[in-house]
Amino acid sequence: MLARRDAQKDRIEMGKFVITYRDYGTPGELSTVTLPSTDINAANYDAQAAAADAVRTAMEAIMLGGVQSRSLVAWQNDTAVAPTDPFAQRETKWLVRYHETASGAKHTLEIPCADLGYLDPNANDKILMTDPDVGDFIAAFEAYVKIGGSLAVEVDEILFVGRKS
């Protein structure tokens, strides 16, 4: 999805927040998360930037990787934060399953460098949905992510998955 300038000044259609994480090791491999959002324009930029940062902070509470870069369509922050935990591996992921609230259409998102300390002790392939950090992530995710720029979403479950490089 490419952002494009509209005829209306300072309007960017179909916002998105892109965060790249580095896993532990030398040189460390990269993995990227892209979150779609509502349209970003001069009137809502500050609110969207705050919501994007809230979902990023909540997501990082349930993962171990270090931030390599992040961008909100119109801006990019290349301030890198190196991971300190050797378990920060891009192949260890949270798979977020969610749906559009209006249509029920299903979507998924992978988050690299999952912190497996958040696994549910009663369901070892799922995140503990009642954990406060997980609840904060879900609330921030649902507040920020918009499909097609305007369609609200709801998280169904978050699973632990391993991916090969």
The sequence of SSEs as H and E is: EEEEHEEEEEEHE
Query: Which class of secondary structure composition applies to the elements?
Result: alpha+beta
How helical, in percent, are the residues? 10-25%
Low-confidence stretches: 1-13
In terms of DSSP E residues, the strand content is: 35-45%
- As laid out across the biggest beta sheet, the strand order is 3-2-5-6
Main sheet overview: 4 strands, antiparallel
Total count of strands = 11
- The total count of helices amounts to 2
Shape: globular
- The residue-averaged pLDDT reads 86
Cα end-to-end separation = 24 Å
- Estimated radius of gyration: 16 Å
Count of the separate structural domains: 1
Plain-language structure description:
The protein is an alpha+beta fold. It has two helices and eleven strands; from the N terminus they run ββββαββββββαβ. Strands 3-2-5-6 form a four-stranded antiparallel sheet, covered by helices on one side. The chain has a three-stranded antiparallel sheet with strand order 8-7-11, with helices on one face. It has a two-stranded antiparallel sheet with strand order 1-4. The longest helix is centred in the first third of the chain and has 16 residues, at 45-60. The protein is globular and about 40 Å long. 35% of the residues are buried. Residues 1-13 have low confidence and may be disordered.
